[in-house]
Amino acid sequence: MGQDKSLLAYHGKPQREHLTDLLRPYCAEVWWSVNADQVDGLPDSAPPFVVDAFAVNSPLNGILSAFQQNPAVAWLVVACDMPRLTGRTLDALVAARNPAKAATTVYDSDGQAPEPLLTIYEPAIGPILLRRLAEGVRSPRNMLLESDIHVVTAPDIGELLNVNDPDTRARWQS
């Protein structure tokens, strides 16, 4: 995208703020995953944040860093580049949660594989993710595929649209 996707405004405010508001009913606390370069730019009023702690260029960094912050809780992970996401999909995900599984997730926008960036990761998966990273696996999707997870269909897969480049953003906004 060429810029911090969490600062793009789709709903009259930066996506980071929109998602914080959207997630508050589902989480005791909303945490932001940031890299070290983003920390200085955070406003004083920012929610708590987890700084990437691993030398891996993957969304897995934020997930593992969250478990390093608190390994005893489940983490609801939501990507900042899903501007269509609503409470309807979050309601479905939370209602389907199965704490006996390593994670509860939705099928991705293709309906074929788990969407690792809209997933409730249970505490039991933290050590598995760390071990798989040490073995060279960097894909959270592959790690989910290898684990005992619960996958549900989102009520509207259109909500899972990832806006990762300027062309997709322009098409979505028009």
TrEMBL record:
Keyword Repressor: no
GO biological process: Mo-molybdopterin cofactor biosynthetic process
Pfam families named in the record: NTP_transf_3 (PF12804)
Signal peptide annotation: none
Protein name: Molybdenum cofactor guanylyltransferase
Domain MobA-like NTP transferase: 1-136
GO molecular function: GTP binding; metal ion binding; nucleotidyltransferase activity
Keywords from the named record: Cytoplasm, GTP-binding, Magnesium, Metal-binding, Molybdenum cofactor biosynthesis, Nucleotide-binding, Nucleotidyltransferase, Transferase
Keyword GTP-binding: yes
CDD domains: MobA
UniProt-listed SUPFAM superfamilies: Nucleotide-diphospho-sugar transferases
